[in-house]
């Protein structure tokens, strides 16, 4: 009887020790993830070319743990060579982030804007398909909104940040939808959910994040988008702010 009790106690102690170790590992992982989130935030908001730091952390294996795997996988997601000659989604995101860094001072909330630039195409990892020889990613904006919420919720309790970033992700394709009069656009919902000028700013960077895009033309298109949204008294002047590489 005593022998059985000792074995039971031993098993219980071992189980408690394992649970404690798992908890410590989880806490350490959470702490490390939040530290990385803080580092990324600092570089997104301060660096002239944040992609350099992003690629350093990617190469170091720092995106191997969830939720950063949601960024890492973008290296493996192809895009249409016609619309995105820069290559995979990750290449595009890095270009968008770097252009974002050049115009972020025109944003009303640079922190939100830069995180939206980094996360805007998360949805492509779940929506990219090849159809009849064409690569598409239909509804990646809507899917990406939910993924942005999932990503940020693992790293911050700032509900306002999560909401604002996810709404920019959700509507980042609307400049195209509105200008092309596509049925996917919802102008009234966009006006209710987010800041139109921030969408315009992100839309400009999204377009510039394609190899071969012309800044002057894209700036003109974005201001046409603002006019269609009823904003005619404060055009954006972005072309003069960007450094062509």
Give a verbal description of the structure:
The chain has 245 residues and is mostly helical. The protein has one domain: Hypothetical protein af1432. Helix content is 63%, strand content 2%. It is built from twelve helices and two strands. It has helices spanning 2-46, 51-59, 69-72, 89-103, 110-119, 124-127, 140-153, 159-171, 174-179, 187-193, 196-208, 215-228, and strands spanning 129-131, 134-136. It has a two-stranded antiparallel sheet. A hairpin with a 2-residue loop joins strand 1 (129-131) and strand 2. Helix 4 packs antiparallel against helix 5 and helix 11 packs antiparallel against helix 12. The N and C termini lie far apart (79 Å). The model is unreliable at 22-28 (pLDDT under 50).
């Amino acid at each position: 009887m005593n022998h059985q009790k000792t074995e039971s106690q031993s098993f219980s102690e071992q189980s408690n020790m394992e649970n404690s170790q798992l908890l410590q590992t989880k806490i350490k992982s959470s702490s490390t993830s939040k530290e990385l989130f803080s580092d990324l935030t600092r570089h997104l908001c301060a660096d002239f070319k944040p992609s350099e730091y992003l690629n350093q952390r990617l190469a170091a294996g720092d995106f191997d743990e969830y939720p950063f795997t949601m960024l890492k996988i973008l290296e493996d997601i192809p895009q249409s060579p016609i619309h995105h000659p820069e290559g995979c989604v990750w290449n595009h995101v890095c270009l968008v982030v770097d252009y974002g860094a050049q115009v972020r001072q025109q944003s009303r909330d640079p922190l939100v804007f830069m995180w939206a630039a980094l996360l805007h195409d998360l949805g492509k990892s779940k929506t990219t398909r090849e159809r009849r020889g064409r690569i598409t990613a239909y509804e990646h904006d809507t899917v990406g909104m939910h993924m942005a919420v999932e990503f940020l919720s693992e790293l911050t309790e700032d509900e306002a940040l999560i909401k604002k970033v996810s709404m920019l992700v959700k509507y980042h394709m609307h400049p195209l939808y509105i200008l092309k009069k596509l049925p996917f656009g919802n102008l009234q919902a966009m006006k209710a959910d987010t800041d139109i000028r921030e969408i315009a700013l992100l839309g400009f960077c999204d377009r510039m994040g394609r190899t071969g895009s012309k800044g002057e033309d894209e700036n003109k298109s974005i201001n046409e988008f603002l006019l269609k949204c009823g904003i005619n008294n404060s055009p954006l002047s972005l072309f003069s702010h960007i450094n062509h590489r």
